[in-house]
Specification:
Blueprint: E1 2-3, H1 5-14, H2 18-25, H3 29-37, H4 43-53, E2 62-63, H5 67-72
Antiparallel strand pairs: 1-2
Amino acid sequence: MISYAPLWETMKKRGISTYALIRDYRFSRGTLDSLKQGRNISTQTLNDLCNILECRVEEVLVHIPDPKEQKMR
């Protein structure tokens, strides 16, 4: 599972709100909703976030292994 939990902390550290993403960086509300709901985003969106926040991908998302997948191995 992919979690965007690190994104919100990174945004807070950088002083960038969701409103600023919409107003200043032309992020769509739908994309922000996808992030909040933990849905898929494109690699372009990931790239845009890293550029805006001047951060590494690890500061936007984290992979949490699915227990079911590990049992199947």
